[in-house]
C-alpha cells in the first residue's frame, strides 16, 4: 500500500511534500512543550470536512509535543435551538442577551451538544480529549457582566444582559492535571458564580483568560473571516493596541469582532506571546498558522 502511494507521486509533488515537512521542523522544535489555546468559533464549524480537518490539526499538534487547549463557541447552534423553541436571539455589542430560559438552552447546547461533538471528533482523529464546562473542577469562576454602552452619549449606562458573565478567575488545576496526562481539554464557555448559578460567557473572552492563566505561547481565534479587515475589505496582517483603538473608534471593528480583538489584546498584554485571528473556513487553518513561515490571518502583538 505504502509503496504504491510513493510510486504515484511525481517528482514535483514529492518535492513539495518534503519542503512543507522541512518548513514545519523549526516550528515543531520551537513550540514543543508550549501551550496553544485555540478558540473554535461556532461560525467556523461550518461543514463536516472542515471539522475533521480541525480535529486532525489539534491531534497533530499534540503528537509533536505541543499542548493544545480548545475553547469552543456555538453562537449559531444556540440560535438554531432558540429558533426551534420560538425565541429570538438578541445581541448587544456582540453579547447575547440571556434570560433564564435562554441560559438553560445555552448550557444545553454548549455543554452538551457542541462540547461532546468536538470531543468526539478529536477521538475520531486519534486523540484523547476531555470536555469541560466552567463548572467542572470549578474551572471558570464568573460574575455578572457590567458592560457600558459604547456610544459616547450613553457611556455611563450599564446594560442589563441577564445571565451574561465575565471571567473572574480561571482555576487551572483541572487543566494542568489533564495536560500533564496528555489529554486535550475542550472547554465550553459556561461560567459559575459564587452562588453556583450559571453564566453565559462569550467564548473569545474565555479563550483569552484561559490563555493568560496557562501562560500560553499562542492564542488562536478561528472565525468566519480571513482575519481583521479594513473598511475596504483588505486583510490587516499585523496589529497592535494603538491601531486597534483607532479602528474601534472609526467603526471598522464592530459586533462580534469587538470581544475578539479586546480579548486578544488583553491576552498579549498579559503575557501571551501572540494572538491570531484566522479563517476557520480554510481547510487546516490551524496547521497553516502553526507550522508555516507565512502564517495566516491577523497577528496581534503587544507592541
Ligand atoms: N473589521 C472587521 N473585520 C472582519 N470581521 C469583522 C470586522 N468587524 C466586525 N466583523 C464581524 O465579526 C464577525 C466575527 O465575529 P463572530 O460572528 O462573533 O464570530 P465567531 O462566532 O467566530 O466568534 C465577522 O463575521 C464580521 O461580521
Ligand atoms: C454572552 C454571549 O454572547 N455568549 C455566546 C457564547 C457562545 C459563543 O461565544 O459562540 P461563538 O464563539 O460561536 O460566537 C452566545 O451566547 O452566543
TrEMBL record:
GO molecular function, one term: ATP binding
UniProt keyword ATP-binding, yes or no: yes
Keyword Transferase in record: yes
InterPro entries: AceGlu_kinase-like_sf, AcgluKinase_fam, ArgB, Asp/Glu/Uridylate_kinase, Glu/AcGlu_kinase, NAGK-C
Keywords, sorted A to Z: Amino-acid biosynthesis, Arginine biosynthesis, ATP-binding, Cytoplasm, Kinase, Nucleotide-binding, Transferase
Site features described as Transition state stabilizer, chain residue numbers: 39, 260
NCBIfam families documented for this protein: argB
Role noted for this protein: Catalyzes the ATP-dependent phosphorylation of N-acetyl-L-glutamate.
Designated name of the protein: Acetylglutamate kinase
Gene encoding the protein: argB
Amino acid at each position: 500500500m505504502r509503496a504504491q502511494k510513493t510510486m504515484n507521486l511525481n517528482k514535483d509533488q514529492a518535492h513539495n511534500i518534503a519542503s512543507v515537512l522541512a518548513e514545519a521542523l523549526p516550528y515543531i522544535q520551537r513550540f514543543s512543550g508550549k501551550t496553544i489555546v485555540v478558540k473554535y468559533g461556532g461560525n467556523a464549524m461550518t461543514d463536516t470536512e472542515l471539522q475533521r480537518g480541525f480535529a486532525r490539526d489539534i491531534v497533530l499538534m499534540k503528537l509533536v509535543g505541543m499542548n493544545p487547549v480548545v475553547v469552543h463557541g456555538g453562537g449559531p447552534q444556540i440560535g438554531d435551538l432558540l429558533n426551534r423553541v420560538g425565541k429570538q436571539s438578541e445581541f448587544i455589542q456582540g453579547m447575547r442577551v440571556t434570560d433564564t430560559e435562554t441560559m438553560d438552552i445555552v448550557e444545553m447546547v454548549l455543554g452538551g451538544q457542541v462540547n461532546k461533538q468536538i470531543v468526539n471528533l478529536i477521538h475520531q482523529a486519534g486523540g484523547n480529549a476531555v470536555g469541560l464546562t466552567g463548572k467542572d473542577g470549578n474551572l471558570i469562576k464568573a460574575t455578572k457582566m457590567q458592560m457600558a454602552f459604547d456610544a459616547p452619549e450613553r457611556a455611563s449606562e450599564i446594560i442589563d444582559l441577564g445571565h451574561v458573565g465575565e471571567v473572574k478567575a480561571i482555576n487551572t488545576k483541572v487543566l494542568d492535571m489533564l495536560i500533564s496526562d496528555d489529554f486535550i481539554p475542550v472547554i465550553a464557555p459556561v461560567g459559575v458564580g459564587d452562588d453556583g448559578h450559571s453564566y453565559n460567557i462569550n467564548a473569545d473572552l474565555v479563550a483569552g483568560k484561559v490563555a493568560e492563566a496557562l501562560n500560553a505561547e499562542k492564542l488562536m481565534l478561528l472565525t468566519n473571516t480571513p482575519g481583521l479587515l479594513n473598511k475596504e475589505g483588505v486583510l490587516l496582517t499585523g496589529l497592535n493596541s494603538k491601531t486597534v483603538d483607532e479602528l474601534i473608534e472609526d467603526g471598522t471593528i464592530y459586533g462580534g469582532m469587538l470581544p475578539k480583538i479586546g480579548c486578544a489584546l488583553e491576552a498579549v498584554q498579559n503575557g501571551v506571546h501572540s494572538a491570531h485571528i484566522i479563517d476557520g473556513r480554510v481547510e487546516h487553518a490551524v496547521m497553516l498558522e502553526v507550522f508555516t513561515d507565512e502564517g495566516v490571518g491577523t497577528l496581534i502583538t503587544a507592541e
